Amino acid sequence: MRHGFTLIETVIYTALLVSGMAVLTTILLSGLNTRSLITGEQQLVSNQQLAELTIVERLGQAGAVITPASATSTQLVINSPTPSDDPVTFQVTDGVMTMTLGLQAPVALTSDAVRVSAFTVTRLTATPPSVRIAVTYETDTASGATPRIDSAFTYTLRHE
């Protein structure tokens, strides 16, 4: 009677073990990459919602749009019903969307984890007057992917 394994059996069992470990590692890494991508996309959506809801809320209160008076701009400047907050300026500085109320310091509307790579405001020649706002949000993930959201919406001015 023989006891133990032959060399061939040892090689086969080792190969099966290594293959199984490789499959499990691949599944684990794939799960981590997917989680990283989902987290990045969640950051994009939450930043987009905050920034755009703030813009829409301020546009609803605005008496007039100062910039752009016509055509297209990379800045949105509107009147505020509160004198100390007048004017309200939305712009992108170093990839962060900011809102400046009057002479106060700018307030970030997007986090450092999200990059705003494009922000354009177009004054539409329509009746009633409207502005079209287009924004591109991007983020980097641990997996190396760069999810992005291209958002555009049109707001019809109530008071102008």
Topology summary:
Layout lengths: L6 H55 L3 E3 L4 E2 L1 E4 L9 E6 L2 E6 L5 E2 L6 E10 L5 E9 L9 E9 L4
Antiparallel strand pairs: 1-3, 2-7, 3-4, 4-5, 5-6, 7-8, 8-9
Could you characterize the architecture of this molecule?
The protein is α+β, with helices and mostly antiparallel strands. The chain contains one helix and nine strands; from the N terminus they run αβββββββββ. It is rod-shaped. The chain has one domain (7-156). β5 (96-101) and β6 (107-108) form a beta hairpin. Helices cover 34% and strands 32% of the residues. The chain has one helix spanning 7-61, and strands spanning 65-67, 72-73, 75-78, 88-93, 96-101, 107-108, 115-124, 130-138, 148-156. It starts with 6 loop residues before the first helix and ends with a strand. The mean pLDDT is 89. The strands form two sheets. Strands 1-3-4-5-6 form a five-stranded antiparallel beta sheet, with helices on one face. It has a four-stranded antiparallel beta sheet with strand order 2-7-8-9, covered by helices on one side.
